[in-house]
Write a structure and sequence with these properties.
mainly alpha, single chain
Amino acid sequence: MSGGHFEYKQRQIDLIVDGIEEHLELMGKERWDVNTLGRREFYSEYPEERTYPFESEKVQERMVQAIRALKIAKVYAQRVDWYLSGDDGEESFLERLDKELDNLNVEPKKCKYVKREGESCTLNDNCTYPNCKE
C-alpha cells in the first residue's frame, strides 16, 4: 500500500466531509426513530424534535465552504503523504497534485430534486440521495 507517512489519517477528512453533507441533507426530514417504541412519547411531548433542525442560510453557506476546503485539504494531504513516503518524486508529486485539484468536485452532494437549500426532496420526503428513486 502506498503512502503511510501520516498513518493514513487523511481518510478522516473524508469522514468529516461525509458528516457535514449528511447533516445538510437531513435538514427538515423526519427522524428515523420517530415511531420507535419508547420514542413516540418523547416526540409527542416535543413535536419540534420529530424532524432534523434547519440551519440558517449563513450557517449552510459556511458548511458548504467547509466541505470545499476539506476536500482540497484531503488532496493536499494525500499527495504530500505519497511524496514524503517516497512513492512520488518531485515531478510526479506536482503533476498529480495539479491534476487532482483540477478534477476535484468541491460541490456538496445534494438531491437533484431539491430546488432550494433546506427544502425536502420533491419526489420523496425520505430521499436517501444519492440513491433517490425517480
